[in-house]
Design a protein that fits this description.
107 residues; mainly beta; Metal Binding Protein, Guanine Nucleotide Exchange Factor, Chain A; 3-stranded antiparallel β-sheet; 10 strands; 0% helix; 53% strand; Yippee; metal-binding; zinc; Yippee_fam
């Protein structure tokens, strides 16, 4: 198959198949979540955010919201709202999704 025929590589909610994000929006694959490996994304879609809360994470104190699939309500990860340490500010507005909670769509 020619490269121009291949569309974007997508990730879906592992539970219901709702399209959540594009592979091209991954910033980092070295994040750790409670259930293992996680990816940091610049953009996601078809998610809803829970309430903001301060949470002590491995890299310090952050204000975050949990991120849920908009179709089935499955907890997929979290969104960084505010980082209190200067070196962590690059995470603000970014989303961490647990690798076990997203599935590759046909690739």
């Amino acid at each position: 198959m020619a490269d121009w025929m291949i569309g974007p590589r997508l990730y879906n909610c592992y539970k219901c198949g709702n399209m959540i994000c594009r592979h091209d929006d991954i910033i980092s694959k070295i994040f750790q979540a409670s259930h293992g490996r996680a990816f940091l994304f610049t953009h996601v879609q078809n998610v809803v955010d829970g309430p903001e809360e301060d949470r002590q994470l491995m890299t310090g104190l952050h204000t975050v919201t949990d991120v849920y699939c908009s179709d089935c309500g499955e907890l997929l990860g979290w969104r960084y709202i505010k980082a209190y340490e200067e070196l962590q500010k690059y995470k603000e507005g970014k989303i961490v999704l647990e690798r076990l909670k997203i599935a590759k769509e046909s690739w």
